[in-house]
């Protein structure tokens, strides 16, 4: 696990296990087991295990989070909405990291980042509550200067930049623009003293330009790894993603 940021040999890889649970829940059975996936991901090189306890429990369930916490050798990054229920669960389970994310009931996936300025006091209070429970707080936000400055005001030590627009870009020009927004956002975050993570929609085909950014400390990736695992096996899917990240970061460092 890399301890320093930025400019480590690779960003940390947070493997998101949500969609292992999606597959389990589709049949109402107890397999595939997200706990087994988490432990195997750690053995294959994951630095962090990320899981999103959605309010509607569409994939990860409370029991998964509770059972996994004492088993992990790395870190648990629990993603949750900014609600009293979720904050109470997080404080009881005490993951090392909590990432606060916006949720909409009908969305297929997380559509955007937190609107921090509009709920500054509520977010500040949540950050204080989590910090008092010994939890490091991350805010999932769009790579937007206004949001990054607002995040700094909450005293949360970490931000995670939403890479969804980058991942969904329709052409090379659009992708380059989105990459530039993320690079500038990461630079600003680090300048403000924040740890800067990124994630959402990243895939084997688009991860390297993001992993190359020296200011990015951690990438959280799930759906692509679960999907690729169908063809190459779970551990190989994790190893391949980590290898792409290391290669991209090393190449960028060599060029610098
Ligand atoms: C915040 C984030 O990007 C992930 O938690 C992602 O949202 C998980 O997958 P779903 O959005 O499909 O639940
Ligand atoms: N925070 C982003 C994340 O955990 C991974 O999301 P995805 O790779 O499943 O889109």
UniProtKB/TrEMBL annotation:
Residues binding 3-amino-2-oxopropyl phosphate are 16, 27, 201, 222-223
Pfam families membership = PdxJ (PF03740)
A GO cellular component annotation in the UniProt record: cytosol
Q: Which InterPro entries does the annotation name?
A: Aldolase_TIM, PyrdxlP_synth_PdxJ, Pyridoxine-5'_phos_synth
Q: Does the keyword Transmembrane helix apply?
A: no
What residues correspond to the site Transition state stabilizer? 160
Report the domain of life of the source organism: Bacteria
Where do the catalytic residues lie?
Answer: 52, 79, 200
UniProt-annotated location(s): Cytoplasm
Say yes or no: keyword Cytoplasm present. yes
Positions binding 1-deoxy-D-xylulose 5-phosphate in this chain are 18-19, 54, 59, 109
Keywords from the named record: Cytoplasm, Pyridoxine biosynthesis, Transferase
This protein's pathway? Cofactor biosynthesis; pyridoxine 5'-phosphate biosynthesis; pyridoxine 5'-phosphate from D-erythrose 4-phosphate: step 5/5
Q: GO:BP terms for this protein?
A: pyridoxine biosynthetic process
GO MF assignments = pyridoxine 5'-phosphate synthase activity
**Into which EC class is this enzyme placed?**
transferase
What family does this chain come from, according to its entry?
Answer: Belongs to the PNP synthase family.
Q: Which PANTHER family match?
A: PYRIDOXINE 5'-PHOSPHATE SYNTHASE (PTHR30456:SF0)
Task: Describe the function of this protein.
Answer: Catalyzes the complicated ring closure reaction between the two acyclic compounds 1-deoxy-D-xylulose-5-phosphate (DXP) and 3-amino-2-oxopropyl phosphate (1-amino-acetone-3-phosphate or AAP) to form pyridoxine 5'-phosphate (PNP) and inorganic phosphate.
Q: Tell me, how does this one assemble?
A: Homooctamer; tetramer of dimers.
Protein name, per record: Pyridoxine 5'-phosphate synthase
| Organism of this sequence | Mycoavidus cysteinexigens
């Amino acid at each position: 696990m890399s301890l320093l940021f930025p400019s480590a040999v690779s960003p940390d890889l947070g493997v998101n296990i949500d969609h292992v649970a999606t597959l389990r829940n589709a049949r109402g059975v107890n397999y595939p087991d997200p706990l087994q996936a988490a432990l195997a991901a750690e053995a294959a090189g994951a630095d962090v295990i990320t899981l999103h306890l959605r309010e509607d429990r569409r994939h990860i369930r409370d029991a998964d989070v509770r059972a996994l916490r004492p088993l992990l050798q790395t870190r648990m990054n629990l993603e949750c909405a900014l609600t009293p229920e979720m904050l109470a669960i997080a404080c009881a389970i005490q993951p090392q990291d909590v990432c606060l994310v916006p949720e909409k009931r009908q969305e297929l996936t997380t559509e955007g980042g937190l609107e921090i300025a509009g709920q500054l006091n509520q977010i500040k209070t949540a950050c204080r509550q989590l910090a008092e429970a010994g939890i490091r707080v991350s805010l999932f936000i769009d790579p937007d200067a206004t949001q990054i400055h607002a995040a700094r005001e909450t005293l949360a030590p970490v931000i995670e930049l939403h890479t969804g627009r980058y991942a969904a870009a329709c052409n090379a020009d659009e992708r380059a623009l989105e990459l530039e927004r993320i690079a500038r956002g990461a630079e600003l975050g680090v300048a403000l003293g924040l740890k800067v993570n990124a994630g959402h929609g990243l895939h084997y085909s688009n991860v390297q330009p993001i992993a190359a950014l020296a200011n990015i400390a951690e990438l959280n990736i799930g759906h692509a790894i679960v999907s690729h695992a169908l063809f190459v096996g779970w551990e190989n899917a994790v190893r391949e993603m980590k290898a792409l990240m290391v290669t991209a970061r090393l190449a960028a460092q060599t060029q610098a």
